[in-house]
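Teaching assistant's notes for section 4

Start the section by putting this record on the projector. Ask students to predict, before seeing the second block, whether Fasciclin domain-containing protein will look compact or extended. Collect guesses on the board.
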Amino acid sequence: MKRIFLFAAVVVAMACSTQVKAQKNPMVGGAAMYPTKDIVDNAVNSKDHTTLVAAVKAAGLVETLKSAGPFTVFAPTNEAFDKLPKGTVGNLVKPENKATLTKILTYHVVAGKMGSKEIAAAIKAGGGKAELTTVEGGKLWAWMEGKNLMLKDEKGGMAKVTIKDVFQKNGVIHVIDTVLMPK
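Reveal the predicted structure now:
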C-alpha cells in the first residue's frame, strides 16, 4: 500500500512539473507553444505566423527547422510581413525567387540556442551591443532599449522582440515585429 501511494505521489508530481514547464512558454498567436515540439510543429499553430510558415515551406526549409539544431529564430509576425511593400511576399514565394527567400529567412536564424539571458550576456560583454552571425552568414546587432530587446539588420532596419524565450526542443523563438533584411 505504501508503494502504491508513493507511486501515485510521483505520478502526480511529474504531471504537475510537466504542466508547469508547459506554462513557462508564452502563448504565441493564440496557441500554446510546447518545449517538447520542434520549431515548425509549434509555429504552424500560431495564427500570427501563417505568412512565415508559408515562406518556410516555399523556401524548402521545413526539414532544416525540424532537425536537431539548435537554432535561435527571430520570427516575424504576419503584421511584420505586411509592412513590406505591397506584393513583396507574393513575389518572394514564387519558385523562381526561392534563393532570395531562403537568404531572407536564414538571415532570421542564428546557430545555437540563445535565450534572452544569453543575448543579454552577449550585449553586456559587447559593451551595450551584441553582434550576432546569422545562418545566412550576415550580421545582426542586438541591444536593449529599456526593457525591450532590439535588433538591427545590415540595411539599417530595426525590429523589436515582442515575445521572448519561446523554447522548443530544437532551439528558441523570439517573435519580432519587423522583417529583417540582409545586404
